[in-house]
Amino acid sequence: MSKRVKARSTTGCAEGPYRSVDHFDKLAKEDLPGKDTLDKLFTFAVERFGDSPCLGTRDVLSEENEIQPNGKVFKKLILGDYKWLSYNQIDSLVSQFGSGLAALGQQPKSTIAIFCETRAEWMITAQTCFRHNFPLVTFYATLGEEAIEFGLNETGVSHLVTSVELLETKLKNVLPNIPKLKHIIYVNKKKMTTEGFPARLSIHSMQEVQNLGALPEHARKEVVKPQPSDLAVVMYTSGSTGRPKGVMIIHSNLIAGMTGQCERIPGLGPKDIYIGYLPLAHVLEMTAEISCVTYGCPIGYSSPHTLSDQSSKIKRGSSGDTTVLKPTLMAAVPEILDRINKNVMNKVQEMSFVQKMVFNLGYQYKLKQIKRGYDAPLCNALLFNKVRKLLGGRVRLMLSGGAPLSPATQRFMNVCFCCPVGQGYGLTETCGAGTITEVADRSTGRVGAPLICCELRLRDWAEGGYTSKDKPNPRGEVLIGGPNVTMGYFKYESKDEDFFVDENGQRWFCTGDVGEIHSDGCLQIVDRKKDLVKLQAGEYVSLGKVESALKNSSLIDNICVYANSDQNYVISFVVPNQKRLTELAKQRGLVTDWEEICIHADMEEVVLREIKEVAAKIKLQRFEIPAKVHLSPEPWTPEMGLVTDAFKLKRKELKNHYRHHIERMYGGK
């Protein structure tokens, strides 16, 4: 199964289009016959799973402040068990909330916005909008004030669903600049004060709007059902460049995209449990959760700060969300998997010599077995079950998306967590659908074959040196075509050249990513057009390629490589691994606080030496290896605005943030 041909060209040409061999004659548009809109999927699920658990949330039992040695205060939580809402209960809430919004003047086919963290109320709001044909405008909870103001004004929404925290910290300052906004609905149970908000705004709790919708005069009003061609979502991407863009997604786009995704997740159903913690405003998480709801798989809500027992907001000695929920399915972005990998390996370094030797022997043995297509049950029982319990102990499948996952991290998760780790490739513009690796595929570094809902083409990019005639495999810019390709950008026609319609009426999206199609039809992403920089001497450097290679170092938590066309070398900004660098500083007699370690010239040299060693092992070209480095004591987070919610680097913002260091490293030029 691992070695079978999974996709082939429909024309016999090297550039494609390539289709899955499992659905070769035509592209799949829907999974369940006749269920061609999102509200029909949910109605189908309610009829089928009625009183079964659907969405679960943990109560906060207590909160306390913990003072760190450096004087910083961290909020720590003790959380209870998961409390579940059944399909029937959610069905009732969706009807009431929709009728309540209509009573407040929300019209069918008029946009309504959600700016909220990942939680059950987000999914309830989404299902409400799908049923009542209110196109839902989504924003990441970590977007800055300026981007939120821009998006709300561009879409002209009159109603906004949010949380008290975001309302008070991010929205309050920009509300006077959003004249069309009339109603704000907050999802929290607690009552909030409305002082200090513009007088034209009405502020309601979600419960109040549901109560309004339950009144007979509102509940009896006829619901205008959506059509497959109606707008379902305007999804604002935080974007790694420029201002956010709203991607227009119709019902049939999402139905097609999820049809392709679900075909690659064998056995999805009520026996599974999914943990939801990634941003629901990201297409990967939204489509994963709608698919789970459709197939009866309960979703337990979490956050990156409460995910495991070791997470930053979990009080020491109490249980994180994975320990309590014991999920079987989990989506992740590479940044989170890299973090898990480094945390486990740091613990291994603390073991005694004998324990470390046993772990490493077991790891290498199981790695060989996995590459041959086998398992190692004895190693699992003796060594890896303990590691597996960090994520609850029952995960049967993990899916990584949003950015390339390094082969080393993928193998680590395979070995230590005893489950396949699939990689997916897709974009907001393709409903998150493009490719996903099959469970049986044992290879690393690839993102799988095209899903049954779409096909791929390669377009030559001569400037970058990628063509369909390349050996051993054809390469070029990846184009994705099919019913999952969205309708373009909201009021942003100038960017719509990324989309085109072919002679058969099929929509295509030009991704800007450079791919290579292997002989079995699987795709590997090898470059990105925007990441290519030409140095002074004419050599091309792929920034993304260098970054993913150097991230394999245990001394590097994150890295951004920067190059300037009027210079002949590249430089880098590095978020070092605090534990490892502190140990190395101690060995050199440098005992001081973390910030001092990071600005010390000796420690920059240490990291630079490590970079050169890693680069030599993976055979980077001399001109690709960073010649200078700046160390950042603070990790880059979406809140800082230096990375997107999928933890992709925002190069423009990083360049501005480190402008004076760039000048220093390039000798004041």
TrEMBL record:
<dbReference type="InterPro" id="IPR042099">
    <property type="entry name" value="ANL_N_sf"/>
</dbReference>
<dbReference type="Pfam" id="PF00501">
    <property type="entry name" value="AMP-binding"/>
</dbReference>
<dbReference type="GO" id="GO:0035336">
    <property type="term" value="P:long-chain fatty-acyl-CoA metabolic process"/>
</dbReference>
<keyword id="KW-0436">Ligase</keyword>
<keyword id="KW-0443">Lipid metabolism</keyword>
<feature type="domain" description="AMP-dependent synthetase/ligase">
    <location>
        <begin position="76"/>
        <end position="490"/>
    </location>
</feature>
<dbReference type="GO" id="GO:0005811">
    <property type="term" value="C:lipid droplet"/>
</dbReference>
<dbReference type="InterPro" id="IPR020845">
    <property type="entry name" value="AMP-binding_CS"/>
</dbReference>
<protein>
    <recommendedName>
        <fullName>long-chain-fatty-acid--CoA ligase</fullName>
        <ecNumber>6.2.1.3</ecNumber>
    </recommendedName>
</protein>
<dbReference type="GO" id="GO:0005783">
    <property type="term" value="C:endoplasmic reticulum"/>
</dbReference>
<keyword id="KW-0276">Fatty acid metabolism</keyword>
<dbReference type="GO" id="GO:0005886">
    <property type="term" value="C:plasma membrane"/>
</dbReference>
<dbReference type="InterPro" id="IPR020459">
    <property type="entry name" value="AMP-binding"/>
</dbReference>
<dbReference type="GO" id="GO:0047676">
    <property type="term" value="F:arachidonate-CoA ligase activity"/>
</dbReference>
<dbReference type="GO" id="GO:0030182">
    <property type="term" value="P:neuron differentiation"/>
</dbReference>
<dbReference type="InterPro" id="IPR000873">
    <property type="entry name" value="AMP-dep_synth/lig_dom"/>
</dbReference>
